[in-house]
Amino acid sequence: GFKVLASASHYWPLEDVDGIHEFRDTNGDIVEGMVNKGIYVTEKKGVTFLFFGSYRNSCISNPEACGPEGVTFSFFWKTQDQQAKLLPASGGRVISSGFKICSNEGEGSVEFYTRGNAMMKWKASFSPPGPFWTHVLFTWKWRDGLKVYVNGSLSSTDPHGGVFYDYGDGGTAELLGGSEGSAAPRAVTGAFDEFVIWERALSPREVQLYFTAAIGVQVLLSSTLPWSLMTTTTKPELPSPYQPVMSALSRGRAGPQSPGSALGHLQDVSCCLPAQPLPQDTALGLSQAFLKAVEDFMLLSNWMDAPESPAVFGSLVRTIDTVMAHLGQHLDGNPLPLTLEGSSSVADYSVLKMHPQTLNVSHYRFPSRGQSYISIPSEAFHGKACITIVGLLYHNMHYFFHSINPTDTRIAEAAAHKGYLISASSYLISLKVEPLPQLSYNLSGSPLITIQLAHRLTPRQYSQALNKSNRVHLYCAFLDYSNGTGVWSDEGCVRESGDLNHSVCLCNHLTNFAILMQVVPLELAREHQVALSSITYIGCALSILCLTVTLVTFAVLSSVSTIRNQRYHIHANLSCAVLLAQVLLLTSFQLSPATLPCKILAILLHFFFLSVFAWMLVEGFHLYSMVIKVFGSEESKHLYYYGIGWGCPLVICVISATSSLHSYGESGNCWLSLEDGAIWAFVAPAMFVILVNIGILIAVTRVISRISADNYKVHGDANAFK
């Protein structure tokens, strides 16, 4: 563990703290980091001031400067009072590339920002400490995202991050921050020790080794709030009926397994739980062991992009529901209410056993804080019998429901758009109540369940949603297991309100909920499609006919003088480019997008429509050379004109097709994609030609007007001026 610490880039031991071992060399001296500046601890009136210095162009303060090895920050932290009340931060907020560690009441979070070429933010939450020393360590890598470890174990992750649009919640108290700019002091009622930075991401084993070395004992983590260090090397006694289950979960993690066998193992465990009372400490140990096994399965699975991914993880969710419902049903102890709360990298969970009459609020809400929650009116709880409430808020499960075929759901509106896949765009949240609450059968009645879910959109989903040529459908959906497998359905749920950032749903039942998103391109009505199609075919046919006549005419008149021959050459090439573009355009309507013929035709259309604009530019240059400034011989101009008319479009097309071939013939037609910027390979040259030709038109018009005015003064012929 101390070898891991010895490899750190920066190390500030701060004060001597009982129970936390500092790194000393063979002479017994504390080993300082390469830079022992930037961290200052000044106690005044019981408050610790702590701020982080500036490391410009360093991975420490600018994640964009990080190599593939990433970065790690580590420290010990505790609150100064038993109530763990955190005062608001003083001074300005650090808003820059870098990191923040923040705290609201009852929730801590780590945030990473990049504000250079990629405006991204990663955020992972964890439970802040009470009056016990708690080790917080977080790692960040471009490939793996943000991982937060609490007391040596992985607590939460944000593997993908999100597009960074705002600067976070103004009510957040910042505990500690690092940035490229200057930072004002921040005040919190907390104490810190052993601040360490590695300019690489530590492995889970290295995290555990360092943590064990730092405290010098084996530890047992309590996931009830607040987190605490318990200096004991013994595990709690487990009742014999649950000992085989715990052993089976441990054996399942010991050796390598395929994803299929790992899922089967978890399902076997859920089916073999003994119907025996569960003391709170045993229930906590069982829940942690099971969710750790689920975490191992999710890391092991290779179904992320597989078509069967929604079905597999639907089965996994049902297995988790079965185990957690068993915990709630058999949770034993006195007096009521009994509470079991915890957090893992898989989910935040809560099990509550109570009498309904003890609920002294208008609604029961899970979780009690955060933007995503389920709320049940107290009037839905009836009778005097004991009720059990089991809640789960999954952290990463929604990533595995990203390619759902609408025909595999029971959402009628989604099934009407068969060709467009559905993705989960929020956290998955679950609530189970026994006995069932009394809810209104009618969605316009009461009481009903209220579900609010913050959206977790990927950058691609944001781009699609903001595209005004798309219609975004958001569905309040749940996993329906009535036929034995999990099928997404919206029966008994309605989306009451919301926007692109969140949704509020009303439902008359309880289960697993999520917001599903389906992006469908806007479609014209049938009569408009027929009208536009008719205009296109008739217009292009007339154009092709007239262009053919034009080319024949130029061929007949090609024996005229040299100057006129050059003009005819330009006109003929322009007409040829337009003719071929029109023919290819009509042909493209018969091909299906995302096929090789469509892709080839899209490249040819790009070339010939660019050539149309290029020859229009040649027309402008030729007019300029005739009226304003004569340049070059007839032969040299001939080569220049052909180079501009056919050569420039060819170069642009080759570069565009080589760099972004995937942008041709994929998005609904045989043309360039409008989503990823490839369309500018056509729009930019076309705009350039238009601007140049407008300039030439103005210059030529001025010259002709001046000549005509002079002729009018000499000859007095008004018609010549007109």
Automatic annotation (TrEMBL):
One of its GO terms (cellular component) is plasma membrane. Its main location: membrane. The keyword GTP-binding does not apply. It comes from Hylia prasina. The gene is Adgrd1. GO terms for molecular function: G protein-coupled receptor activity. Residues 348-523 form the GAIN-B domain. Keywords: Cell membrane, Disulfide bond, Glycoprotein, Membrane, Signal, Transmembrane, Transmembrane helix. This is Adhesion G-protein coupled receptor D1.
